[in-house]
Amino acid sequence: MTISAPASAVTSKTAINYTVTFPEAQAHYANIEMTISGIKNTTTDVKMPVWTPGSYLVREFAKSVEGFAAFAGGKEIPAIKITKNTWRISNGKASSIKIVYKVYAFEISVRTAFIDASHAFLSTSGMFMYPADSLHAPSTIHIKPYKGWTTVSTSLDHVGDDPFTLYSPNYDILFDSPIEVGTQDVFGFDAAGVKYEVAMCGGGNYNREQMKIDLAKIVEAETAIYHENPNKRYVFIVHNYVKGGGGLEHLSSTVLGAVRDGYATEGTYHNFLSLAAHEHFHLWNVKRLRPIALGPFDYDTENYTRSLWIAEGFTTYYQNVIMRRAGLYKPDEYLGVVAANITSAENLKGNKTQSLSDASFDAWIKYYRPTENTPNTNASYYGKGANVAMLLDLEIIRHSKGAQCLDDVMKYMYDEFYKVKQRGYTEEEFKATLEKYTGVNLDDFYQKYVSGLAPLDYDRYLGYAGYKLVDDYAANNIPTLGVTIVTGGGKSMVTGVMRDGAGWIDGINVNDEITAIDGAAIPEIDKFIAANKKVGDKISVSVIRDGQKMVLPVTLLRNPGVKYHIEDKGTPTAEMLAVRKKWMHL
Question: Is the model's pLDDT at 295 over the cut of 80?
């Protein structure tokens, strides 16, 4: 979907060109030269986005800009910064100007730019300025690679046969099309009528041929939900590290972080494929079927929505559904992954203080700014959102006697809003469609599970398929301090304190160094307490806090952690087996 912006001094006849060079790649810099011609006004404002789509945090990309200057007719002209991310250029009668600036790029993540002598990852929203009010304008990007770099990987179109010259029809597409430049290993496959490219950066022990087969299975399984794949070409950019993870979706590509030497281990490889399934699923859910607040974008400020639990939570649910449908998880493995996700979500104390709706809205100020208290205050719109999606899926399957599932909601919404109405959906519109397919009024469901704090009734919905949730720790009566301890350099440091735990109640603080329990130095405090103490025991905890020694009396409490698995609740009925067959893809 192409989004238009109001016209300004930059017109449809304006030409915008960028040249990107790397004279100091080893020091993590890119030099950007931007030329704008066809200008009608005497002043020109250019902006740098403050955030990148898909990552809901104002990152202030302008902070990495240096050496901004503007020129006309070969002479420098006045330019001044007027807001945190806006520069005003006094170009007078000049209809063409050149802007130059440097960008420092040294943050390893899927959502930020990184440059060194081995490669450049250009997260485009943090690299390219744009003329104010002209997000509709097309642009051409010329890349002059650093020595030894041979390859460009991006979903942007090449100009002619030049792989280092790229074209973007507007800035929404440019800012949603990252660019990898270097010596990456590139291979491809065809799936769902689309050309797929995989760019593997940083080496690794991956098996090219197996990866082609497995990614193609994922693509086909996801395309089957929507009955179409809207891309002609799609690019997986994979950054391999000693320790890596995370992904960020884009309109026709994704960026993934992976463990360089983890591909030969089944569990780690499956985690990679599950991540790929998640980010690829976003090309429908979020990039095209989206909450109404998420497009057209305002790149100057936050774009708030209460529906990230759908955008991200449903996608988290589907990444595992797709792994099952693609045959990459066996039935028991799938149930294990579902149970693990429930366990992870339910061990967050924040579920009792923050609703899914609020977690979505506050992502801009909370999710990407975790603190030591985050587990106590934040629900996960990823994990809990996935669990809510599961409940709704099971409700639809039960109501339709196995004829329909959540797929039908996703396809209907995609067709109705992306293709027909050509806009995003409201919360009310998504809820109405869920009600259409579940056959029930969801006011109570939403009040309890979306805007409220009620515990999810897993057994009710899993029961539709003849399953029940079992807590392996239910009978445990293991004592705990209720704190997270990191040991290193001969010290035991408190890095987290669990809400309503023993340490919380009796005053242990983050950054306390625990030096003794009942006067004795203990190297493995958690194991010692679990093995030698009982719930209700009163102990003395010696700590050093800000250089001062103190002794805290603490009453040990039961460890409230859960660990779930899913099992048969008995002999399933025919109705249960029908639900199970549809849900488990048996």
Answer: yes
C-alpha–C-alpha distance, residues 221 and 49, integer Å: 35
Peptide bond into 296 cis (omega under 30): yes
Q: Name the class of domain 479-558.
A: mainly beta
Q: Of 478, 483, 484, which Cα lies nearest the Cα of 559? A: 478
Report the pLDDT value the prediction gives residue 133, as an integer from 0 to 100: 87
CA–CA gap between residue 168 and residue 139 (Å, rounded): 5
Q: Residue 315 above 60 pLDDT? A: yes
pTM of this structure:
0.95
The CATH number of the domain covering residues in 308-472+569-584: 1.10.390.10
Helices and strands counted in the chain (H then E): 16, 31
Mean pLDDT of the chain: 96
The mean per-residue pLDDT over the stretch 561-573 comes to 96
For the chain, domain boundaries = 15-182, 185-281, 308-472+569-584, 479-558
pLDDT tens-digit readout, 468-486: 999 999 999 999 999 999 9
Fold: same for 185-281 and 479-558 = no
- Please give the biggest Cα pair distance in the chain: 84
Q: Which residues contact 444 (CB under 8 A, 6 or more apart)?
A: none
Q: Are strands 179-182 and 185-191 parallel, antiparallel or unpaired?
A: unpaired
3-state SS record for 525-536: HHHHHHHHCCCC
Structure-block tokens of residue 374 = 């985050």
Which amino acid makes up residue 266? E
185: its two tokens: 């290993």
Residue 166 has pLDDT above 60, yes or no: yes
* Phi-psi domain of 166 (left: phi exceeds 0; alpha: psi -120 through 50; beta: other): beta
Structure tokens at 283: 């090309």
Q: pLDDT tens-digit profile of 370-391?
A: 999 999 999 999 999 999 999 9
CATH of domain 15-182: 2.60.40.3650
What separation, in Å, do the N-terminal and C-terminal C-alpha atoms of the chain show?
Answer: 36
Q: Looking at domain 185-281, which of 3.20.20.150, 1.10.390.10, 1.10.443.10, 3.30.470.20 is its CATH number?
A: 1.10.390.10
Does residue 197 surpass a pLDDT of 70?
yes
Tell me, rounded to whole angstroms, the distance of Cα 196 from its chain centroid: 21
Find out whether 478 and 501 touch, Cβ atoms under 8 Å.
Answer: no
Q: How confident is the model at residue 8 (pLDDT cuts 50, 70, 90)?
A: very low
